[in-house]
Description:
It is a single chain. The chain is an alpha+beta fold. The protein has one domain (2-273): B-lactam Antibiotic, Isopenicillin N Synthase, Chain (Jelly Rolls). It is 33% helix and 24% strand. The protein has helices at 24-39, 52-66, 70-73, 106-116, 122-149, 156-162, 229-234, 288-297, 307-312, and strands at residues 2-4, 10-13, 42-46, 86-89, 92-101, 163-172, 182-187, 193-198, 204-207, 213-215, 222-227, 244-247, 255-264. Strand 9 (204-207) and strand 10 (213-215) form a beta hairpin. The longest helix has 28 residues, at 122-149.
Amino acid sequence: MGSEGEANIPVIDFSTEKLKAGTSSWVAARDSVRRALEExxxxxxxxxxxxxxxxxxxxxxxxxxxxxxxxxxMKNFNPKPSFGYMSKISNIPxxxxxxxxxxxxxxxxxxxxxxxxxxxxxxxxxxAHLYAQLVAKLEQIVMRMVFESYGIExxxxxxxxxxxxxxxxxxxxxxxxxxxxxxxxxxxxKTFLTILHQNHVKGLELRTKDGSWIFFEPSPxxxxxxxxxxxxxxxxxxxxxxYHRILVENENEIRYSxxxxxxxxxxxxxxxxxxxxxxxxxxxxFDQISFIRFYVKSGGKKxxxxxxxxYCGT
Length: 314
């Protein structure tokens, strides 16, 4: 179920028939998930709920959305930092993205679609909503495994009820000069969990537990699942945040990516079961969106100190 190939790459099979709770394959996957998140903060999920046809469809509508006029995309505003349209940012010049907040909610996808296509675009709306639901299912399986592996299943349902999801449609333009090839420097996300999926153009690099960097080899059924800073804090630093960066080398093709981010609406608190003599409490309860605003004001990725510790460390 869980295997590690070259360069410490954990690949975990989330095929439907292998993931019945309580079976030996479930337990093996659960243990592999926890080990990967504790050792390096990420793993590759092989997930059969996204067919090749649907993979092609969701990237087709993603390209369609990101090809809209700049003035139209600017309407995708969100007061939460980085949740809406992003483009032409000095330190990430190749990156452009649109965001659908609460993407698992049909009305949210409908509202985004009406904003981008006042005349309507049922294909986009249906694809985006179905994609969000399918990836949310993967996220919830992963989190159920995490809660179960720590013996705190009783907290899982309240965690799911507090979860909200952001779907980002991302485009990386072709680099025109050498210094533009590194578009996102090494960083961890401020999310609870991040799930990344992309087209065939490579660009995502992942930091392994031994500190080396590897390119993610994309495929229609492969998803990168990463712990964010919020998950690290919730676990009382048992789980590591997944460090990654973007290196855009292909000058002939455009890289498209789908980033699925999970957040908590309620205060994030370290479960009392995860606090002991070996793991003293590291973080006070905190609001995730307020932390993100604090992070942005602190300088974001340019900040030289641990922003989360500064915000809510004990």
